[in-house]
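[agent] plan:
  1. take the single chain provided in the ticket
  2. run structure prediction with default settings
  3. attach structure tokens to the ticket
  4. add a short note for the reviewer (M.T.)
[agent] executing step 1
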Amino acid sequence: MTETVITRFAPSPTGFLHIGGARTALFNWLYARHTGGTMLLRIEDTDRERSTDAAIDAILDGLRWLGITWEGEPVFQFARAARHREVAEGLVAAGRAYYCYATPEELNEMREQARAEGRPPRYDGRWRDRDPSEARPGVKPVIRIKSPLDGETAVDDQVQGHVVFPNKDLDDFVILRSDGTPTYMLSVVVDDHDMDITHIIRGDDHLTNAARQTVLYNALGWRVPVMSHIPLIHGPDGAKLSKRHGALGVDAYRAMGYLPAAMRNYLVRLGWSHGDKDIMSTEEMTEWFDLAGIGRSPSRFDFAKLENLNGHYLRATPDDELFEIFLATLPYLEGGPALVERLDARLKGQIREALPGLKERAKTLNELLDNASYLWAERPLPLDDKASALLDDDARRTLSGLFAVLKAAEPWSVETTEAAVRTFAEANGLKLGKAAQPLRAALTGRTTSPGIFDVLAVLGREESLARIADQTA
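[agent] step 2 finished; step 3 output follows
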């Protein structure tokens, strides 16, 4: 009987959901879906000073925006501290861990001596076999695991391969602090075991942790989950992704106008591949995702690629669906809250009608919002520099003639306005562009826009003629 795959995403709520964390969540989610398993969510909130409710809300919100779901309620690690402590004390009772009464001064001396001898700082095991009765009065002990003194600990990783760690480098690390709180190493192992996690997919900065956690699994007699440590994301310059590269929280990418489907597609290709396929639906990702496709080399975050991919998704998303996404995202976009306040049924209808032309010229929802701004601009329309330069005396005379023929167009539609402008251009020996460009500047305040006859139709007769008249007065 095949075992059901159970993965987990386990963020620390000390800040936003950053892009590396989002990719880790996506990989866990896709692998669970691909195998017919489930993904669980664990909030590792044991750092009480830095963990905040706001960060927890931001992480949950970011996952939901990306469309990444989890099974059941999130598990909060701090709430399980009593269970972690019980396991640590059980290891002491079994002779696989011990109370260490080394003072902070002694530990500092060990570090200084190691530094002086050019060695990495390691605990020297001085309390491994001593009786607690030898301890100084008043010293609160920590609990340390009895790591193997010789030999090696191996991690058979699905991405990194067979990785070997000399046990002399792992030392007897702390699993329970002197105040009775568990360390990260212990909490993670106990939680993964108790949650029946079968596969751990996380960043390769945890690879050394995997060796120590394997020591704990072996001491407890528990099976080690299948591990996959994925390379970190780097910036375009090859350095580890940081704030200077724009490594922001997922919420920032929503505010920059990226679509969740585009983000999923972009993130899945950061470190995983399926042939030379770059654009893939979530259904295709789910069907194809496997651990063997994850590469060992760090991937590079490229905003230009993300923008181009997002532009593809804007154009490919059905208009009604895109309209709903646009309305839902408006509160987060630059200038969006102001538009939300003035949105009425008429303006919503105009935006929806203009959407097919708007989405062809935008790469983000912010660009789409900016390109649509002519719809609610107050008269007299502000002109950008190019539009202002375009509307010279000749152009304004052309506009005067166009005003007259457009005023007579019946009924007002894409077809009738186009026929009127074409007839005017031919009668005056003008190429269509020579008539259309002044019209575009007068109607939108810019020299680029959706199709000019679509603009006329969306604005309507009264508003269109008023804007033309403003530029001919």
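[agent] step 4 note for reviewer: Residues 374 and 444 are 5 Å apart (CA to CA).
[agent] ticket updated
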